[in-house]
């Protein structure tokens, strides 16, 4: 059954002293994909300033803007209306030699190469290899995701944006970003092309119509097994009509929701809120 979701993502940055200027990039606009249609999307900035948009190398829509006058704070509000549908049935899993051949001779190579955020210790790779022994690519993705979720408890605030996947594994706690990095890193180490997905997840699977609920941005993975298939290792489910894709890349650095530079005194961390309303 399709869903129509209105999403309001607000980021507020406050400076210890007024910033002289700032230059910003925002990745908060949901994509239009098979099974997901963005009906409306706007990025609003306060203080008001002109914005521009472009598509980056990974296929994510980026909104850029500059503030050249002093400002004590910055508020970015991304509002979107997205229609989503349940995923199609899983395609038949290709044999591992076919996956290896495609990964070596196409852009899929970028998604089997480790990054600084997804590099895995050899001991952990061997553990994942044992968990996936004899399994096809779809089964491997589920087995490795379960292995990660069994070890790393989802505890908001337990890690920071610069925590490595290996550190989250060792401490046994992390957030969806860490769980997605671990899953992607291990699947890549086993030869399965995997990309990191940034987006939103409606927190209530049986959401009432027209009732706003608080949520947050979310991260999961997509692996290639004949076609791209989304899987949410934090919640141990396939990505479905509750998931909204904003960007996909090798890791968090490719799809950071907001990044920029400014001239001024350092302030505290940004305040981020996400509100969902199911409208159909």
Automatic annotation (TrEMBL):
Annotated source species: Streptomyces sporangiiformans
Classification via InterPro entries: Bac_transglu_N, Papain-like_cys_pep_sf, Transglutaminase-like
Domain Transglutaminase-like stretches: 168-235
Name under which the protein is recorded: Transglutaminase family protein
Domain of life: Bacteria
